[in-house]
Write a structure and sequence with these properties.
Number of domains: 1
CATH superfamily: NADP-dependent oxidoreductase domain
Strand order of the largest sheet: 3-4-5-8-9-10-11-12
Largest sheet: 8 strands, parallel, barrel
Shape: globular
């Protein structure tokens, strides 16, 4: 599995990451079909398959229901085998998202995440934007809280999962370590963020919705997974693609497509 450096650290992370929203939440999620939450055995099997294929990147969040808690219970002694990306600023409570980007709230969120994951640090924490990217970055106190937690050794890299092009550009210009954007062959609006990150060389870029959350942009596309991954990694600013699945076969297909994109990886 091809790996790239998580900028601002000495860590090498896989270019394909496993998203875990489906480990802990199946309410109000935008997937084509409904699904039941997996049992522990299913999660462990998926984690084993991912690890065996060279994936060492996991993506979770407080807004993903019980995902963090379940990872903390199931990773156990293998926790250090993984680089974990989590979020702060959004929670899913009683069927709806609740946002708080104040400094104290961000600090509490990260401390709770460490407890849930049963760890002393997390590799990446991204602000889980509600769409007001620029206001969050400039005025909420969230970035300052993350910087303090990073200085304390509780976070290796900080950033934001954005919803606007302007927010992504600001994150890179502010010198954040990482940004997560929506990018695929059918959604290229946020390409300027990748361009700037590649130009400045100081910000890792994670891709969400690389496969359109299962809704591909072209119904007649014969190989949409490979098409999307090949397109994304043609851009020098791309670091890792986060894909969430509970289906081991889909994971195998994603890994196989990555091997075609990086045959020497």
């Amino acid at each position: 599995m091809k790996k790239k450096r998580l900028l601002g650290t000495d860590l090498e992370i896989s270019c394909l990451g496993l998203g875990t929203v489906k480990f802990g939440r199946n309410e109000q999620v935008k997937y084509p079909t409904a699904f039941d939450l997996p049992d522990d055995r299913q999660i462990l099997k998926l984690l084993d398959s991912a690890s065996e294929s060279g994936i060492n990147l996991l993506d979770t969040a407080p807004a993903y229901g019980t995902s963090e808690i379940r990872l903390g219970e199931l990773l156990g002694s293998r926790r250090d085998d993984w680089a974990i990306v989590t979020k702060a600023g959004e929670e899913f409570i009683d069927g709806k998202s609740v946002f708080d980007f104040s400094g104290p709230a961000i600090t509490r969120s990260v401390e709770r995440t460490l407890t849930r994951l049963k760890t002393d640090r997390v590799e990446v924490v991204l602000l889980h934007s509600d769409g007001n990217d620029e206001d969050i970055l400039r005025h909420s106190g969230a970035v300052e809280a993350l910087q303090q937690l990073k200085s304390a050794g509780k976070i290796r890299a900080i950033g934001i999962s954005t919803k606007t092009v302007s927010g992504g550009l600001l994150a890179v210009n502010q010198g954040l370590d990482a940004v997560m954007i929506t990018y695929n062959p059918w959604h290229r609006d946020e390409e300027p963020v990748l361009d700037l990150a590649a130009e400045q060389g100081n910000c890792s870029v994670f891709m969400k919705k690389a496969f359109g959350s299962g809704w591909f942009g072209s119904s007649d596309e014969k190989d949409p997974v490979f098409t999307s991954l090949e397109f994304i990694f043609k851009h020098p600013g791309a670091t890792s693609v986060i894909t969430g699945t509970l289906n081991p076969k889909h994971l195998e297909e994603n890994v196989a497509a990555m091997k075609r994109v990086f045959p020497d990886g």
